[in-house]
Amino acid sequence: MDINNTLFTDEEKDLLKSLLVCLNELAGDSGKSDDFHKVKQMIIRAAQQEGLQRNHFGLNPVLFNLQTAIIAADEINVGRAAIISILLHGCVSCGSVSLEEVEKEFGSEIAKIIRGLIRVNQLYARNTAIETDNFRSLLLSFAEDMRVVFIIIADRVNLMRQIKDRGTDEERRKVALEASQLYAPLAHKLGLYAIKSELEDLSLKYLEHDAYYMIKDKLNETKRARDAYIARFIRPIQEKLEHEGLKFHIKGRTKSIHSIWQKMKKQKCGFENVYDLFAIRIILDSPLDKEKQQCWQVYSIVSDMYKPNPKRLRDWLSVPKSNGYESLHTTVMGPEGRWVEIQIRTERMDDIAEHGLAAHWRYKGVKGGGTRLEEWLADIRSSLEAGATSDEQLVDQFKVDLYSDEVFVFTPKGDLFKLPKGATVLDFAFQIHTGVGSHCTGGKVNGKNVPMRTRLQSGDQVEILTSPHQSPKRDWLKMVITSKAKTKIRQSLHEEETRAASFAKETLSRKLRNKKIDYDEASINRLIVKMGYKYINEFYKAIQEEVIDVNDFIERYAESIGKGDQQADEATTVSAENFVQQTSEQEEREIKDELIIDQNVKGVEYSLAKCCSPIYGDPIFGFVTLNRGIKIHRMNCPNAEHMRNDKGYRIIRARWAGKGNSQYAITLHVVGKDDIGIVNNITSIINKEKNVVLRSISINSKDGLFQGTLTVQIDEIKQLEALVKKLSTVKGVKKVSR
Predict the structure, then answer these.
(1) Which is the most buried residue in 215, 308, 469, 596, by most CB within 10 A?
(2) What would the pLDDT profile of 316-361 be if each residue is shown by its tens digit?
(3) What distance in Å separates the CA atoms of residue 302 and residue 308, rounded to the nearest whole number?
(4) Structural domain boundaries enclosing 708
(5) 580 in a domain, yes or no?
């Protein structure tokens, strides 16, 4: 390439030549004969216009894109469109080449991929690390074309390999954190297990430097002994497989540094106590029609030689993973009592395992493979379009969907469904159809009725039970883990809340008209915010559910716009001939704003609250209702705090006066040991008490204990306290409470 000297050092020019040779060899016949000539001319133009600049790590843009293209072609096996998009997106981004020109020269497919890459790069121009405020835009870029995902993973691998001595510690940590939180799980979802492990290891290197090098040094120290053990383990298997005439090769691999570190943390042990440090991979050169048969044949040979752990058998031959992964895993007891994991697969399966969905598409065709991934992307699109999901919720469900393993369940007709591990009956209902999920009341798993929160296991046969009267509830969100179910439930709840808010708003408007008070939306909204509601719909929902009394709100609204003062003035204006001078006692009461509760009190409508059943002698307060007079509550009423916090202006001081000359119904709870005659002893004490009447008694006995509920008529608090004390002395009674 003839590019201005300012962009390349002498060392970089030599690297450029070798990279071009490598990419040409990898591209092979996938590119058209004049593709790279056109690409070269566009890159030269952008470089001469000084549009191509080094990034903040100081990396050369042309070299970096070539290296990314090589990774994408060699390790992910992407095709012509992705390679050209990698090489040209920088030229389009800086304005030297237009998308229209790209579309004209290379087609709309490449222009579409470049558009997605530019969107991702614009996000990184603002911040190196992914944050929730731009996460939504990033996912939109992913969802536009799958190849965008492949390319940015290759880009991240390339960056992680090159930043060891570049940038600051903080910049490297940001990139590493992003690689572990976003790109490693993305690679896992796509079946790019080698890339996933590398991203995790490199992230650990920058995030937990000491742990990374400790494990790396330990692995180097034990390499010779480990290799010798693997050789001893493999030898008899190899001889038997050759005797059976099978074509194969065997690889031994050590677990990644990241997975060893995770195991050490999980088991809280040192490196020396992690026993399953390696796995053996047996790869068969097998015809397509004999793949499964020969894999199971190898399993039979291995399990005859070494005792298998039946709990560690994983069959992804019969039902492959959603990312196309096929393999047979088992763990056996090797020499010296050490557990060894064995993976059995064919060359085709190994290619898919190494290169993920890109390889799967080569065997099956784009339409035939990766359908579950397309469903996953469709769920992401659905979540974004719904608009009701917060960025934090989106990040959470995105990670859950990426990391989850799978369970396989059947309908009564035998249809097979894949769901994330931990999915419930309700998840399955929404997987079948939104309408089925929305009306789900439970299910039958293997013929037995189960609640909708029941977690499913592989092999379960599941039938969904529905009712036309059922609808999604907010607590359903805690019962599901799939993004599809969460999105549909939130959509339904949002629609229901909108309808309820509309109805409540109409109710408020109608009542204001009846009271001849002007409806001013701005003033109403200010009052709603003042009451502590962040969203208007939340307030109207509270009106609809009668958490807020609409008449109470109208009263406050009238006061806020001046109506309340006007009405109060009208109410307090009386003629002089009706004026009666207040006595000193009346003045004292008004100053204290205190209600005196007496049997002879007149002119005040009050009643005793049923929630706490106050009796004469209890510390009390009054609560002014809008149409039921004053309610008298105990100071320790369970609703007292709510009333004080939300409607403190309607609370008045109150106290008892004189003597109580009526009886009050009180409920007592009694717990104790279920002895013979204990009920007779309790009722005997109550019957002996003067002016105490037993209205009802209910006793339940279980496992030698009883719980009873007594309702008695009583005069005052002191009499109640005396009765409780006497009942507590009855043999076997452990607790008496009001």
Answers:
(1) 215
(2) 888 787 667 889 999 999 888 888 889 999 998 888 887 665 555 4
(3) 8
(4) 664-737
(5) no
